[in-house]
Amino acid sequence: MADNIALVFTDAIAPDPARPLLTWYDDATGERAELSGATLANWVAKTANLLVDEIGTGPGESAAVLLPPHWQTAAVLLGCWSVGLTVAGGPGPAEVLFAAVDRVAEADAWPAGERYVLALAPFAQPLRQVPAGFADYVLAVRAHGDHFTPYPKGGPQDAELLARAATRATELGIARGDRVLLDAAVHPDPVDWLLAPLMAGATVVLCADLDPARVQSRTDMEKVTLTLT
Question: Where are the beta strands (DSSP E) in the chain?
Answer without folding.
Answer: 20-26, 31-36, 62-66, 86-87, 94-100, 112-118, 135-136, 179-183, 203-208, 226-228
